Amino acid sequence: MARDGRLELRVLDAYGHFIQERADVVLRNQAVTDHVRLAGLDLSREAVIGDLLGPPQNLYLLEIGAPSYRPVRRFVSTTTRPGSARLISLPIDPHKVVRVDFPAYEDLAEAACRLLERSDGVLGQSGHAGKDLYLNLDPIRRAGLLNILAKCRRTLLANGESVLAYLAAEPSALVEIRGDRFFASVPKELREEVKHSVAEEIFEPVSGALHTPPKGFSPAGSFKTRDSYGNLQLTFFARGSRWVADIDIDDAAGLEHVFQVVRNALTGRPTHPYDIHQILLLHQELDSGYRLRTAAPA
Predict the structure, then answer these.
(1) How many Cβ atoms are within 10 Å of 194's Cβ, its own excluded?
(2) For residues 253, 147, 45 and 3, what is the CA-based torsion angle, rounded to 10 degrees?
(3) Residue 219 — φ and ψ, nearest 5°?
């Protein structure tokens, strides 16, 4: 068997930059017994792996593992000619993040600032509002908030208004912020417009059984956008004339499918806002505005 096959790789992060780390690469041929292991491959530029089997026995299972990234796996085919680089995207492992560079409060969307400025009663943040509230949030809550606000800004209802536009208007105000969701007082009109947008196939009704109503409130419907991954979900609760929405972004196995992360690397791990950030960026070209930083390579 001629070993005239080659594989050209461009391994990037979710921001479109070459990863600045060396990685372990494993290739397993799917037709014959042929395993290739490369330790410490430099991926800071396009990498070329040669001495592989070419057509017709050129299908390999590729696995890449780098210190600050989740491992990915996918099928690749070698070629005998240069100029056909395969693009692979690696998601940063949230547990390897050493710093997050957040946008300044002044650079946030005006609608987001209006919501924050009215939110002086957030659980655990009493008395903080606006810029003070934004800066007082820990990185995980701030990241989760920015993910959801970006998705709300992108999501247009059937009447042409964004979800964020309703959150920017009175009486909307944040009441609790978690890393994976936030709860907000909202106008009843938001629920009605979301429900109306089902006919336009912007939202679809889903079960809200996993969302616990605030004390004294009753379930009033749950809806999510029809994205393949990174869905915006709004679950409404009512008490008289008061309305509250539990707003989150559903991962929907995005890491496994968008990045093709090795499945056992995800077992038992809850969805992290840094993962959602990267899914939105790569799958929807939706930038939450912040940047994840890992330790500099040795």
Answers:
(1) 27
(2) 10
(3) -60, 140
E-assigned strand segments in 55-202: 59-65, 72-77, 86-89, 97-101, 173-177, 181-185
Q: Which amino acid is at 72?
A: V
How many angstroms separate the CA atoms of 231 and 228, rounded?
Answer: 7
Length in residues, the chain: 298
- The pLDDT tens digits for 114-172 are 999 999 999 999 889 999 999 999 999 999 999 999 999 999 999 999 999 999 999 99
Q: Supply the DSSP string of 3-56, one letter for each residue.
A: --EEEEEEEE-TTS-B--SEEEEEEEESSSS-EEEEEEEE-SS-EEEEEE--TT
pTM of the model: 0.93
Q: Are 224 and 203 in contact (CB under 8 A)?
A: yes
Cα radius of gyration (the chain): 23
Q: How far apart are CA 231 and CA 223, in angstroms?
A: 10
Chain segment 205-230, per-residue pLDDT in tens:
999 888 999 999 999 999 999 998 89
Among 64, 68, 47, 97, smallest CA distance to 297 is for 68
CB burial string 22-49: b at 16+ within 10 A, e below: bbebbbebeeeebebeeeebebeeebeb
Angle, CA 287 vertex, CA 295 and CA 73 arms, to 5° = 60
Nearest to 227 by CA among 250, 209, 255, 210: 250
Compute how many other C-beta atoms are within 10 angstroms of the C-beta atom of residue 76.
Answer: 17
Q: Which domains does the chain have, with CATH numbers?
A: 5-90 (2.60.40.1120), 97-250 (no CATH)
